[in-house]
Amino acid sequence: MVAFLAVYPVLYATLVRTPLGSEFDVLLPGADVMVTVLYVGLFAMSFDFISGYTGYLSFGHSLFYGTGAYLVVLAATEKLPLLGAETPFMVLLFAAGLLAVVIALAVGAVSFRLSGVYFAMITLGFAEVAHVFIRNWDRVSGNPRDGASVGAGVDAFAVGVPGVDALQIELGRLVRDSLGTVPGLGVELSAAAGSYYGVGLVVLLSYLCMQRIVHSPFGRVMIAVRENEERARAVGYDVFRFKLAAFAISGFFAGVAGALFAGYRRSVAPVNTFDLFVTADALLASIVGGLGTLAGPLYGYLFNASVEGILTTESDGIARYLRDVLGEGTLAAEVGGVSVAELINVFVDGRADLYLGVVFILFVLYVPRGILGTLRDRLGGHVADRLPDRVRSRVRGWRR
Amino acid sequence: MTGVAIVDVLVDLLDPTTLAGIFLGAFSKSALYVMIASGLSLIFGLMGVLNFAHGSLTMFGAYLGGAIMVALVSGGAGGPTRLALFFVAIAATFAVLTILGGAVEMTLIRPLYDRAPLFQILLTFGIVLVLDELVRIAVELNGLQPRTDWQAAFGTAPDFLAEWYTVAGVTTRGLYLFEGLLGVAAVAAIWAFLTRTRYGLYIRAGSEDPEMTRALGVDVRRAFTVVFGVGAGLAGVAGVVLMWDPRFGASVPLGVETLLVAFVVVIIGGLGSFRGTVAAAGIVGLTDAVATWLFVNDHVAFAGLPEMVSFLVLVGVLIVRPQGLFGVAEVGGH
């Protein structure tokens, strides 16, 4: 998967230049979308870390994501003590994670007094308080409802070793025109590809950290809590402290994901940070990818983002494509009193949420373990461990 | 706030007319909350299913009620006809949503009872995504919202809802009084249903111990379907009223808005306890009215206060009493 993600920008750039370029452009997510896949994927992984492994559904996870995102933008606009516009982005990433940890500890201390659905509701409640607060906090900007953005005066945020220019990758769409051409293929890599590798690096590191924790004795306790909390307590574990620690770790990476989002987009708004539907993105990704499989949410979000990309209203969506390919006559044809063009507008254009919702329900009902979880069940072990059979089995798995 | 300012606020607040106004506002809001939240609470109490789609059902009810009125009321319809049609709209919405709720329970939720509660939350959340999007499609396909003939829905409301009445020295909309009365009627009806009918007995028994109730020969499954349907129907009726309420109105985000309030109410009251839900709706309505008054009268400059205060009450209650005011710790074993 890492190898696939590493060559994806080149692959995409090559495929789009082939004769079937416009079809590929419609079907494959662009480099821009892939950056989103990475940071939302990280957010979804952090959500899965707490919800998939301990069984505590954190319905207010957007709280940490939003905290990280707002910290970056507020620091860059000189609105925070200690952290100014000159602070290296790597420091901001770390600070975002730490602040999220502090908030997670405070929220968790109250929330872990409850369990099951009560926990889901109380975390949702906290996130909603934060949502209302950020929408009305006039320190953020003149119009907090619309969020805030980093001005043009601030340099691009960069991932890498602070202070050493050669070891830094700048993020953002508007930084440079291109990253150079790939030798041999003559394919030009866009600036988005640069951000892609920069963000990818942080996400990969975070994934490895979480992976390490999940496979450590600490991770075993988390699973014990999920499977039978009473028993874990009876065995002698202080489950409250384990849950709280897991929540804090999860919050840390959610904060980092939010900071990456803000670093790439250079602007934040309540709608795309502190919102129930931001948590919903992570939830969808985790269910589709496999709850309780750390890498699953990334695949899950890749799937969701692809569906979203295909059904987008933008120029590379299928709606625009259909309008271009189908002739005037077909578009004007009536189906039950409504023209085809109107049907496309209503049922295809930007309707990703509807189909994702249906997919989501079907997954909950029939594939509760998600793509990766089901694959693991079928292969009888971790996907990477079963490398020899992997490709063959996977083809069989998809056909289901 | 300085000491003097607090005294000023108190003097202002304790003025009889102000108090009466706050209580009237609180009454209408509490009534709405109780209508939305009691369905949620009943469903949870009996089945242990946390219905995330409850708010979306309210939202759907709001659009449906509006659409029915637009379809039925012609321009020349007089006062009494409109009034009658308004009740027809309420009844029709209740019927449609009850059937919808029952169908959802039978087809989608039934297969999940043996699984962890997590999956039921997830499933109902999936319903939110689909229902919201379907309503959006319907609204766009019929060109409802941006176009003026949807505005016609406001004109179809019976006259008494739009008029102003003076009660206890306070002038208030007929709509708010009607909301209050409807809420009282709903509470009375649910209470009578739970305590005076055989079905209510089944439901109360089923929420205490489903296994035992089933062993005694009661069809608990059917009770589940009925409760889910009735809960959805109640949410829909609340939605119909919200449609004409200037504080809410029909929009897709209304689903999340009402869902969150309903959650706050049922947790404060104690999940699954009908008595608790009624009490909590009163508390939340009152704090909401006081916070709104504080902000409107410039005593507090923070615009988010009315929205935030009910969550703060929630956190406060949970710290002191995690199971809610009337709740039993760990209802239904979840």
Summarize this structure briefly.
The complex is a heterodimer of chains A (400) and B (334). Chain A contains 18 helices and eight strands.
Task: List its salient traits.
A: 400 residues, mainly alpha, two-stranded antiparallel ribbon, two-stranded antiparallel sheet, 18 helices, 66% helix, B: 334 residues
Description:
The complex is a heterodimer of chains A (400) and B (334). Helices cover 66% and strands 6% of the residues of chain A. Chain A has helices at 2-16, 21-27, 31-54, 62-76, 89-111, 116-136, 191-214, 217-227, 229-235, 239-265, 276-289, 296-310, 318-325, 328-332, 340-348, 352-366, 370-379, 387-399, and strands at 148-149, 158-160, 168-170, 178-182, 187-190, 267-268, 334-335, 338-339. In chain A, strands 1-6 form a two-stranded antiparallel sheet. The termini of chain B are far apart. In chain B, strands 1-2 form a two-stranded antiparallel ribbon. Chain B is built from 14 helices and two strands, in the order H-H-H-H-H-H-H-E-E-H-H-H-H-H-H-H. In chain B, a hairpin with a 2-residue loop joins strand 1 and strand 2 (170-173). With 334 residues, chain B is mainly alpha-helical. Classes of the chains: A mainly alpha (400), B mainly alpha (334). Chain A binds chain B through residues 55, 57, 110, 113-118, 120-122, 124-126, 128-129, 132-133, 135-136, 276, 280, 283, 287, 338, 342, 346-347, 351, 353-354, 356-358, 360-361, 364-365, 368, and chain B through 44, 48, 50, 108, 111-112, 115-119, 121-123, 125-130, 132-134, 137, 140-141, 256, 260, 263-264, 267, 271, 302-304, 307-308, 311-312, 314-315, 318-319, 322, 330, 334.
- Please count the helical segments of chain A: 18
Largest sheet of chain A: 2 strands, antiparallel
Low-confidence stretches of chain B: 330-334
**Portion of residues within helices of chain B:** over 70%
> What is the overall shape of chain A?
globular
Oligomer: heterodimer
Q: Structural class of the helix and strand makeup of chain B?
A: mainly alpha
- Within the largest sheet of chain A, what's the order of strands? 1-6
Structural class of chain A: mainly alpha
Strand proportion of chain B: under 5%
> Please, what is the average pLDDT of chain B?
80
How big is the Rg of chain B?
Answer: 21 Å
Task: Sketch the topology of chain A as an H/E string, one letter per element.
Answer: HHHHHHEEEEEHHHHEHHHHEEHHHH
Radius of gyration of chain A: 22 Å
| Content of β-strand of chain A | 5-15%
